[in-house]
Recover the amino acids of this structure.
């Protein structure tokens, strides 16, 4: 359980306290992850099924790693969403998996709301690993974690100290790119605003969805005012298939106006501004390679924190609270 | 002796003949024989105690999908007519997007034969605008009308070609048939699945802009001005469409419009509240609160002529899916009255206007018989209990399909008795469910 929730389908339903409880647990999980012997028996005997209707090696591997460190059995079930055209519906698939008695079902699906539909039909816990353009809650959590860590370090906290998540209050985060198709942007927005940060979204008007202001975002169409003075910038992946949509005329013009290169970063960003990216990066489109690999980039921290956050989520939803001490993680 | 029924003590609301008050309605030989304040009842006739009830003309629905032929697992003419009778509807117009579509007289005749066999509600078939609903060639309007079609539509899809739409309006004039149009610019709709706005943005669902309807309404009004003829806008849903129709009516164009109970009652925020429940997915989608306010006002002031349910039965096969993949449409015949009555309680509509929008309004729009309790009219009428509370449950539905956004809700107002041609086609047991 995360607070009163049996499932994690998004950050929108979570309260600030519920989000904080996951992040705080992730701190202990990160410590486990960094041990030389990274295996604790916390979720021994539990089964986690990764049900991916959309290819995402990164996210799937991250969940799989998280499950294995906690000694859960991780089973990967890859299914193409075209199985729907073969007559098997998502509900059919869910019921088939249900029959195998998993404890947690991690689901990635191209349709918004798919994890919620599955949650209505199965008795195990459901974690969204990204649904359409709706939410990618664990990515949102890992971004909150990474940002907090970065701001604490920038504020002089000793390296390796547990981050204080209160540090996000009052910070300004810019999210740049195809916000309309981005589940990451939505989860970041819910999480950041709940923890008191200010969020700017930026992109060509074709990539900014109607009414995003109602989610607490300040909308920009030009990059410079969006990133100037920001404490961090989240650069979103520009999917090549959007070019035919057509949301932008081409990647060349996009990178010129909305991409971040070394010169813009040097001139427009504050010295301590961090750069995040959910990956995989289109180098040279949204981010120049020098920026992606530069000193401001916390992209690899995101990957590491992703495992810790997912360990925390699996742990909470598998209901292993009383086994906490044994596993070396505190609840 | 003849079959005579005295419906006594009910509040007769018949906007067509200007009656609103406690009256006795006498039905004899299938017709309305008398509507009067005080009448002596002979001993040997059937009496219906309608005290505390409304007695209205039977409702007319210009827009239902009965799914027969071709998709009888969702609904048949008989089950649809049964649902109509249970909802107080004595006449329904059956949209032609069956399989095969009603673009030829054999389909029309089949629907009429099934309706006759069921004997529950009057079913008026609507023929196709284009052959096979492909939007390429005109269907045979004269033949369709001769077989019994009362209007033309490619409902379910728009007529994409402006040129074909022009010819359809022109050609239909020869037969004085109205065209009832589903207004949607499919290029603007794209892969959209709900109204474009903050709710869609939050849910991460692709949006359908209000303009996708409005550009087509504007186009068809321009074509109507060019050609003459009769245009009926099906399930009008946006403030912009309302403005266009209001202005066209002011200029004297022969345009009428309908709005569904769900567009009057719900908004895109209800999709978000329902957490992707596909019983909230339809075309046009549930719109914004501002659009809803506009269609409510337009129904109240007569810019929108009538309420039509767009009763669209779907089975769990089409609905128990991801929101993106689920079929559009909800059933509506059995919930239209309580949903309308809620608007009366909210002060949106007067009682008289609600009844008019379900009776005389649709009858006038398609020039159909019925919609009035004038002496000599066929005795198509409904007895309604405006205070009856009931829980909308699957088991209570007569429709084969249960895809209603009100499933599980407690509704107020229920039809207790329906007569078609003087015959009782629906009767709710006293205290019955
Ligand atoms: Zn339609
Ligand atoms: Zn329809």
């Amino acid at each position: 359980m995360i607070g009163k929730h049996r499932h994690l389908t998004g950050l929108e339903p979570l309260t600030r306290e519920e989000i904080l409880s996951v992040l705080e647990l992730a701190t202990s999980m990160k410590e486990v992850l960094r041990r030389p012997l990274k295996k604790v028996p916390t979720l021994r005997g539990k089964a986690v099924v990764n049900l991916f209707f959309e290819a995402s090696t990164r996210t799937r591997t991250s969940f799989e790693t998280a499950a294995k460190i906690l000694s859960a059995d991780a089973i990967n079930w890859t299914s193409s969403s075209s199985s729907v055209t073969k007559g098997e519906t998502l509900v059919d698939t869910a019921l088939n998996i249900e029959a195998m008695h998993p404890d947690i079902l991690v689901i990635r699906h191209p349709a918004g709301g798919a994890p919620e539909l599955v949650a209505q039909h199965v008795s195990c816990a459901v974690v969204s690993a990204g649904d359409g353009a709706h939410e990618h809650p664990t990515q949102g959590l890992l971004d909150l974690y990474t940002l907090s860590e970065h701001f604490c370090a920038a504020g002089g906290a000793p390296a390796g100290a547990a981050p204080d998540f209160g540090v996000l209050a009052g910070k300004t985060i810019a999210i740049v790119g195809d916000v309309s198709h981005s589940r990451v942007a939505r989860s970041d927005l819910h999480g950041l605003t709940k923890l008191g940060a200010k969020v700017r979204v930026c992109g060509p008007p074709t990539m900014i969805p109607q009414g995003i202001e109602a989610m607490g975002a300040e909308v920009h169409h030009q990059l410079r005012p969006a990133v100037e003075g920001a404490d961090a910038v989240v650069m979103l992946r520009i999917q090549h298939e959007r070019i035919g949509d057509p949301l932008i005329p081409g990647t060349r013009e996009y990178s010129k106006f909305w991409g971040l290169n070394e010169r813009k970063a040097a001139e427009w960003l504050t010295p301590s501004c961090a750069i995040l990216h959910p990956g995989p990066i289109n180098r040279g489109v949204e981010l120049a390679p020098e920026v992606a690999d530069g000193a401001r980039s916390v992209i690899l921290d995101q990957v590491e924190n992703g495992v810790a956050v997912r360990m925390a989520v699996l742990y909470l939803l598998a209901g292993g609270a009383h086994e906490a001490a044994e596993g070396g993680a505190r609840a | 002796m003849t079959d005579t029924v005295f419906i006594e003590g009910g509040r007769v609301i018949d906007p067509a003949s200007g009656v609103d008050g406690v009256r006795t309605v006498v039905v004899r030989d299938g017709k309305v024989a008398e509507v009067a304040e005080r009448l002596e009842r002979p001993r040997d006739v059937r009496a219906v105690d309608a005290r505390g009830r409304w007695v209205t003309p039977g409702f007319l629905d210009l827009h239902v999908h009965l799914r027969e032929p071709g998709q009888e697992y969702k609904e048949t003419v008989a089950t649809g007519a049964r649902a109509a009778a249970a909802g107080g509807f004595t006449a329904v117009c059956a949209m032609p997007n069956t399989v095969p579509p009603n673009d030829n007289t054999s389909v029309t005749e089949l629907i009429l034969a099934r309706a006759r066999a069921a004997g529950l509600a009057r079913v008026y078939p609507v023929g196709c605008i284009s052959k096979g609903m492909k939007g390429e060639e005109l269907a045979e309007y004269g033949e369709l009308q001769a077989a019994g079609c009362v209007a033309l539509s490619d409902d379910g899809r728009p007529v994409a070609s402006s040129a074909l739409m022009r010819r359809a309006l022109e050609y239909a004039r020869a037969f004085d048939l109205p065209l009832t149009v589903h207004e949607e610019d499919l290029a603007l709709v794209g892969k959209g699945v709900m109204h474009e706005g903050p709710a869609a943005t939050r849910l991460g669902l692709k949006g359908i802009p209000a303009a996708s309807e409005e550009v087509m309404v504007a186009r068809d009004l321009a074509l109507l001005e060019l050609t003459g003829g009769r245009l009926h806008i099906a399930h009008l849903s946006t403030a912009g469409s309302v403005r266009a129709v209001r202005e066209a009516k002011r200029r004297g164009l022969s345009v009428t419009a309908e709005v569904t109970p769900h567009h009057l009652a719900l908004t895109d925020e209800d999709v978000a509240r329902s957490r992707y429940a596909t019983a909230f997915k339809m075309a046009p989608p549930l719109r914004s609160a501002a659009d809803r306010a506009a269609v409510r006002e337009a129904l109240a002031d007569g810019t929108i002529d009538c309420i039509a349910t767009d009763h669209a039965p779907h089975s769990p096969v089409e609905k128990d899916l991801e929101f993106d993949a689920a079929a559009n449409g909800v059933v509506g015949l059995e919930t239209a009255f309580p949903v309308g009555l809620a608007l009366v309680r909210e002060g949106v509509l007067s009682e008289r206007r609600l009844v008019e929008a379900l009776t005389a309004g649709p009858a006038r729009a398609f020039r159909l018989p019925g919609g009035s309790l004038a002496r000599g009219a066929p005795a198509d009428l409904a007895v309604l209990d405006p205070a009856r509370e009931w829980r909308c449950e699957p088991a209570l539905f007569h429709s084969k399909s249960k895809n209603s956004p009100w499933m599980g809700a407690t509704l107020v107002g229920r039809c207790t008795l329906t007569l078609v041609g003087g015959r009782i086609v629906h009767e709710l047991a006293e205290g019955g469910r």
Remarks:
- Chain B has 15 helices and 18 strands.
